[in-house]
Design brief:
52% of the residues lie in helices and 17% in strands. The chain has 11 helices and 8 strands. It starts with a strand and ends with a helix. The structure holds erythose-4-phosphate.
């Protein structure tokens, strides 16, 4: 499973890539607004130059013609840019049009197996089930990831499953166990994934013992 960062923060993306574990990025208008970004195109292009894998940029209009026009434009920004299209009826039309033009689509805001199934048939390259937002309303977001993975496998659908709206490290574990292709995680969760109190205690103890036996701070 690949790990992407769900952010528009350049510093965090650079750090994730330096760690050797982040291969792509997902953004959305909320994340871009959070960073106070004015030049969306410039930031997406910069992110595309930092990560080896795909960078998802979302359309910001809602009518099919507008989405298609914007998506065609976004697709010219960089070779590794994917366009995020919502899981709606209009979105399906847009996805199938873009797929015929070989424009890569990340089908976003997916909350059901049926949305994922239709999106795959229309030609989405990724589908993004929003796990945390389902958990927020008392549903099991990870069950949706597992169900989509199962259905795609059973019917040999090639669309990749990107677990989105990840809120904590356990989400990532369950996404991996469910067979998700990608988990797109906030930077905070990426850091939490590598933290363990017993590791910190162990490092402290080894260093302390070494200092005592060597009689130095080295
Ligand atoms: C993914 O593509 C979305 O940008 C993101 O995961 C949404 O997460 P949220 O529900 O925490 O806003």
């Amino acid at each position: 499973m690949r790990i992407y960062l769900d952010t528009a923060n350049i510093k965090h993306i650079r750090h994730g890539v330096e760690l050797g574990v982040v291969s792509g990025v997902t953004t959305n208008p909320t994340l871009v607004a959070k960073e106070g970004i004015k030049d969306y195109k410039a930031v997406v292009r910069e992110i595309c130059s930092i990560v080896p894998g795909s960078v998802s940029a979302e359309v910001t209009v809602n009518d099919p013609e507008g989405m298609i026009e914007q998506a065609r434009n976004i697709a010219t920004w960089a070779e590794n840019v994917f366009v995020k299209i919502p899981s709606t009826i209009d979105g399906l039309k847009v996805i199938s049009t873009l797929a015929r033009e070989n424009i890569k689509v990340n089908q976003t805001l997916c909350f059901s197996v049926n949305q994922a199934l239709l999106g795959a048939l229309a030609g989405s390259t990724y589908v993004s089930p929003f796990v945390g937002r389902l958990d927020d309303i008392g549903q099991d977001g990870m069950a949706l990831v597992k169900d989509i993975v199962d259905v795609y496998k059973k019917h040999e659908l090639k669309t990749e499953v990107l677990a989105a709206s990840i809120r904590h490290p356990l989400h990532v574990v369950v996404a991996a166990q469910a067979g998700a292709d990608i988990a797109s995680v906030p930077y905070k969760v990426l850091i939490q994934m590598m933290q363990h109190p017993l590791t910190d205690i162990g490092v402290e103890r080894f260093l302390g013992d070494w200092r005592r036996v060597s009689g130095s701070g080295d």
